[in-house]
TrEMBL record:
InterPro entries: Peripla_BP_I, SBP_2_dom. Keywords: Signal. It holds the Pfam family Peripla_BP_4. This is LacI family transcriptional regulator. The keyword Signal applies. Belongs to the bacterial solute-binding protein 2 family. GO terms for cellular component: cell envelope. One of its GO terms (molecular function) is carbohydrate binding.
Length: 309
């Protein structure tokens, strides 16, 4: 087919006579993180001269399955996607495997037992992110004697980041009985839902000390709810979030958030590099973990002027 795909990974019809064609199924456009991630993938494809066929699943698994099936029909050279939830992928991934089209997981993981269904998983260690959030809280309250009441805004139900950020956080704070998660519910990674659920928490839970939100967007929605209830975010209720997108970092610098665990969306360049290696038949690691850090309020002020996303 002469479209850059080597024998063993044989894909089908490409773009020009040698451009790699990548089918990419994106979760949606639910958060600032997702928008930055999409930009990174699209610009990296352009720079690598990879023809990108991009589909936005509006956070619905059935739309991602349809998109992957369509990429198989189109005989793309390679498929990459960020699975909105962890389960339910084996059938469609087997169809891609039978069509000899390699698959790369990016951002989120799947729970398939058969790891031959994809070439690698490029993305963050979400358990580690949850632990970093917990470690900050343990340090922040190390001298506190009273119970610390925590409410948690979880990410999309069934998604790897929601499952793992919850587990990592619970593991660290579980070491000290003074930490109590008094309410925990999904805000689906969106600002609107985060605000709605936080309003409910404020009504049902009289004494909230801390909010742990699995992403900045839900944290920003919660800030609107907290201020609407006449309380001061970052002071009356301490807030920890994950992502470190610009809006979150601004709230951190303004003192409305207390700590942010970074989750980098800038996966595009690594994804295109891995795709080219796969199609050349080169060996690639089964797991590529994203480099990322954490920010307190002072660090956010320093980082904001040059923040890429
Ligand atoms: C994490 C990513 C999550 C972000 C959210 O890698 O899947 O999805 O933390 C985004 O902001 O919606």
């Amino acid at each position: 087919t002469g479209c850059g795909s080597s024998g063993s990974e044989g894909g089908g019809g490409g773009g020009g006579d040698d451009a790699i064609v990548m089918g990419f199924s994106q979760v949606g456009a639910e958060s600032g993180w997702r928008t930055a991630n999409t930009k990174s993938v699209q610009s990296a494809a352009e720079k690598s001269k990879i023809t990108l066929r991009f589909s936005d699943a509006q956070q619905k698994q059935e739309n991602q399955i349809k998109a992957i099936r369509s990429f198989v029909q189109q005989k793309v050279d390679i498929i990459a996607f960020s699975p909105v939830v962890e389960s339910g992928w084996d059938t469609v991934l087997k169809e891609a495997q039978n069509a000899k089209i390699p698959v790369i997981l990016t951002d989120r993981a799947v729970d398939s037992k058969d790891t031959t269904l994809y070439k690698t998983f490029l993305g963050s260690d979400f358990v580690e992110e949850g632990k970093k959030a917990g470690q900050w809280l343990v340090e922040e309250y190390k001298d506190a004697k009273d119970t610390v009441n925590i409410v948690e805004l979880q990410g999309t139900t069934g998604s790897a980041p929601a499952n793992d950020r919850k587990a990592g956080f619970a593991e660290v704070i579980g070491a000290d009985p003074k930490f109590k998660i008094v309410a925990s519910q999904t805000g689906d990674f969106t600002r609107a839902k985060g605000k709605e659920v936080m309003e409910a928490f404020l009504k049902s839970t009289p004494d909230i000390d801390v909010l742990y939100a699995h992403n900045d967007d839900m944290g920003l929605g919660a800030i609107e709810a907290i201020e609407g209830a006449g309380k001061v975010p970052g002071k009356d209720i301490k807030i920890i979030t994950v992502d470190a997108v610009k809006d979150g970092m601004q709230a951190l610098a303004d003192g409305k958030i207390n700590f942010i665990v970074e989750c980098s969306p800038l996966l595009g360049p690594q994804l295109m590099d891995l795709a080219q290696k796969v199609l050349k038949g080169e060996n690639i690691p089964a797991r590529v973990v994203t480099e990322e850090t954490t920010f307190d309020q002072e660090q956010a002020k320093a980082a904001l002027p040059t923040r890429e996303y």
